């Protein structure tokens, strides 16, 4: 049996051009082009298409129809969004206006059960224009912690806002209620009635959402307003994954953990020697930024850390985090340090770990 795997280029439901979890925007124009190539190069010889998030497609005729419709979905989304962009419409405006054409609107596998046309329109705009919508009133808008209290004051205070929002909720205007009560939550995070009404509105939006990812986002937010942010432990990463991570990615991982205020005024040069890979890397701290480069011979530095790459992977997989695991590795002799040990601990003290959960709809 000949099988065509379209896991990366198409699926039997609308996909996200920019997932809610965050990622670089996927190019809808190229996506459509690759699907067209698959349609003509591979589909005539395939018996089944395996795709993500749903069931396979069987039979050459069904496969060809499936790929062609998926191709046209992303090309339509791209081209019509760009057309309206060139008419001066913003992402929010295009997302409200654009609908699938009748020929696609009746096709089940292009519906927004996973992705969303509204979200994909905004992703296309982001791909070309970025976040700024051209209105300078939003060029440097106040953060919600600052704008929330002012919105509430302009609306006549918390009681007046809630009274109006309750009536709007009863009329089914859940999108608006979620927006206005969010201002009150940021103005008064402990206001129980505001949290409850906002949660109810978000929950109704979740129940009505066609997209599974949108539904999850709405219901997660409602749970946070009712129960707070779940407390979860950091999880260690897989050793099998870490042992194949290149050192460039490891140093990038260190760099994004650097707390800039802690590094202010410090300048460090540190060599990392991995004897099992026969590699040396020079890590430099200047202007509160970590940079690195591979060096071929020993170079002058304030300290040299000597650790096999395999042992480094073991340490990094610890749930305590990179800095603490490395400090323990030095203490236990798993990492050797030549030179100024104080400088090594100084650098480790500048690093922070990320908590697995954080606030979404409250300050």
Helix/strand layout:
Layout lengths: L2 E3 L22 H14 L6 E3 L6 E2 L1 H26 L5 H7 L4 H4 L11 H13 L14 H11 L3 H13 L3 H14 L4 H17 L3 H16 L11 H4 L4 H9 L4 H4 L4 E7 L4 E8 L2 E7 L7 E4 L2 H8 L5 H10 L4 E4 L1 H8 L15
Parallel strand pairs: 1-2, 4-7
Antiparallel strand pairs: 2-3, 4-5, 5-6, 7-8
How would you describe this structure to a colleague?
The protein has 363 residues and is an alpha/beta fold. The chain folds into three domains: 127 residues, no CATH class; 84 residues, Alpha Horseshoe (Serine Threonine Protein Phosphatase 5, Tetratricopeptide repeat); 110 residues, SCP2 sterol-binding domain (Nonspecific Lipid-transfer Protein, Chain A). It is built from 16 helices and eight strands. A hairpin with a 6-residue loop joins strand 2 and strand 3. The longest helix has 26 residues. The protein is globular, with a radius of gyration of 26 Å. The chain starts with a strand and ends in a 15-residue tail after the last helix.
